[in-house]
Write a structure and sequence with these properties.
This is FAD-dependent oxidoreductase. Keywords: FAD, Flavoprotein. Strand 20 and strand 21 form a beta hairpin. Strands 14, 15, 16, 17, 18, 19, 20 and 21 form an eight-stranded antiparallel beta sheet that branches. By secondary structure, the protein is of the alpha+beta class. Helix content is about 30%, strand content about 20%. It has three domains: about 100 residues, Uridine Diphospho-n-acetylenolpyruvylglucosamine Reductase, domain 2, CATH 3.30.43.10; about 120 residues, Uridine Diphospho-n-acetylenolpyruvylglucosamine Reductase, domain 3; about 240 residues, FAD-linked oxidases, C-terminal domain (Vanillyl-alcohol Oxidase, Chain A, domain 3, 3-Layer(aba) Sandwich), CATH 3.40.462.10. Helix 13 packs antiparallel against helix 14. The chain binds flavin-adenine dinucleotide. Flavin-adenine dinucleotide (FAD) binds next to strand 3, helix 5, strand 8 and strand 12. Flavin-adenine dinucleotide binds next to strand 3, helix 5, strand 8 and strand 12.
């Protein structure tokens, strides 16, 4: 049947419920923070896993490309935009069941649409011995979509927390992978490997199917969390400070949840929160408050048995004394503090306790001096693009990266907001973003071009991306040809008509 001859969305509505389908060809797609004019066919919001299977069957029949979203909060990396034109968005937000919480093993099974807040609240309600490892990306962002993109949360990469997953492949088959097979074994939901090849790795950063459910390992609550703030001393070179942190981490004396921020990132997070707390404009914040953030700073959370905490604190403070000013805070001291900055930034500290918030999102409005609505970013006139390269955890590499970024951002008048997150095998995931006003299309184009130029320069330096935005997927050429032919063969097997997220990650 020829696609144009049938009212596809209407037909789909008969299958999954008319109220669950939106036809963007009639209504026009919602605005986005990139002012991107990409055509999107529509949006379907399945109520259950069986409906996802029906949608995939339908899409295969009509060769209709699908773009799955768990919550669609992929800010800076594309938000709700598919990679290519004329996709139908499959919004999984209503597949939000939470089941089989195991308070001994610290595991839980969740639907793709479960938000950070839903799961965090559920755990509090259960009086759980475990907490969610939360990202800074809003209460409403997903756990599943974030994990599938290899998102990095407060206590590290979520990919390591996925024990099992259920996927509806592009060919319509259901695949249960990870875990010992679900045959009733005592370890069925806590042991991440079945016999034989571990297939779940195929579904991270790929486009082979729609993941409808995952079983997740949670973070144990070892004791009251202490958060170390490690600020670089003014006279110490950045590379020396970074190398001292790396050495401490290498010797396992600093927890691996290390997050480093450049001064612009720190100010962008703190200033809007102070403005909200004091009910004034961002431009009215006192310079002396802002001056407190003019150095690079790192945080790391000690989630340890109380008997170990003092030893760690002593080692960290003494070792870092020549290069950093170190302070520790716990939930109690933060609650009791009257300091304006501490009060305003409580939400950010709470990430260490597994409590998600929208607080980091306000940072996007800092440069435009706007207190934007974190529940609806596209209602503001602020946009952002992200770059996420990986670099070795050395002072020299941090310096090199910053030089590459500054050489491209500064001449165009863009401020680089940069975070460095420790990830596996002694690497840093670097999150670089800029912001712009979406009122000025020229500036949007300039931002796009600066980001692309920086993306290419970082790739040439060998700082390859840890994840790709929907804008970078089509232009990234760094795959090895043999790798590309192997994943293309798997794609053909799992998704023969190429209906799942075409163009994503080279597929
Ligand atoms: C201020 C700020 C702070 C941020 N902090 C963090 C952070 O700390 N850590 C971090 O990792 N990111 C962060 N982000 C980036 C981003 O917002 C998050 O990664 C967010 O979790 C992504 O949105 P989502 O979870 O709703 O996923 P979605 O937008 O739903 O999906 C993300 C991607 O995964 C694919 N996908 C989603 N669900 C499925 C599925 N079920 N099956 C197959 N494919 C699927 C989608 O096609 C899409 O490409 C931040 C962004 C901002 C602006």
């Amino acid at each position: 049947m020829i696609v144009e001859q049938v009212d596809l969305i209407h037909q789909l509505g008969l299958i999954v419920g008319t109220s669950r389908c939106i036809d963007y060809r009639e209504q026009g797609a919602p605005a986005n923070i990139y002012r991107d004019a990409r055509a999107i066919t529509g949006c379907v919001m399945p109520a259950d896993i069986a409906s996802v299977q029906k949608i995939i069957e339908f899409a295969n029949h009509y060769s209709m490309p699908l773009y799955p979203l768990s919550r669609g909060k992929n800010y800076g990396l594309g938000c709700r935009l598919p990679v290519e034109q004329n996709n139908l968005i499959v919004d999984l937000k209503d597949i939000d069941h939470i089941r089989d919480y195991n308070d001994e093993a610290g595991t839980v099974t969740i639907g793709a649409g479960v938000s950070q807040k839903q799961l965090a609240d559920y755990l509090v309600h259960q009086g759980a011995r475990y907490r969610l490892n939360v990202t800074g990306s809003s209460e409403d962002s997903s756990v599943v979509g974030n994990a599938l993109e290899r998102g990095v949360a407060h206590y590290g990469c979520r990919v390591n927390e996925v024990i099992a997953m259920q996927v509806i492949l592009g060919n319509g088959d259901t695949l249960q992978c990870g875990g010992p097979g679900g045959l009733g074994e005592p370890s069925w939901n806590s042991y991440a490997y079945a016999l034989g090849p571990d297939l779940k790795g195929l579904f991270f950063q790929s486009a082979f199917g729609i993941v409808v459910e995952i079983t997740l390992k949670l973070t144990p609550i070892a004791g009251p969390v202490q958060v170390a703030s490690i600020e670089k001393k003014t006279t110490v070179p950045l590379a020396q400070w970074v190398d001292t942190l790396a050495d401490l981490r290498y010797r396992n004396l600093l927890p691996d949840n290390l997050h480093i921020a450049n001064p612009a990132r720190r100010m962008s997070v703190v200033a809007p929160l102070i403005a909200r707390y004091e009910q004034k404009g961002i431009q009215d914040i006192s310079q002396s408050d802002l001056d407190r953030f003019c150095q690079f700073s790192a945080t790391s959370s000690l989630n340890l048995d109380a008997r170990l905490v003092d030893s760690y604190k002593t080692v960290i403070t003494e070792t870092l004394a020549p290069v950093a000013n170190v302070h520790f805070a716990d939930a109690e001291s933060i609650r009791a503090s009257r300091d304006v900055i501490t009060c305003a930034t409580r939400g950010v500290f709470e990430h260490a306790q597994g409590i998600p918030s929208d607080d980091a999102l306000y940072s996007l409005g800092y440069e435009q001096q706007q207190l934007l609505d974190p529940k609806d970013l596209s209602a503001s006139n602020v946009g952002t693009f992200f770059l996420v390269p990986v670099i070795p955890f050395t002072g020299a590499d941090v310096d090199t990266l910053i030089t590459i970024v500054n050489q491209r951002f500064e001449p165009q008048g863009f401020t680089p907001f940069i975070t460095f997150n420790f990830i596996e095998h002694f690497n840093l995931e670097v999150v670089i973003n800029l912001t712009y006003s979406t009122d000025d299309m020229g500036r949007v184009e300039q931002a796009k071009s600066v980001m692309l130029d920086t993306f290419e320069a970082l790739n040439r330096q060998g700082y390859l991306p840890q994840r790709l935005s929907v804008f970078q997927s089509p232009v990234f050429g760094g795959y090895h040809p043999q790798y590309l032919s192997a994943v293309t063969a798997i794609k053909r097997q799992f998704d023969p008509n190429g209906i799942i997220a075409p163009g994503k990650y080279g597929l």
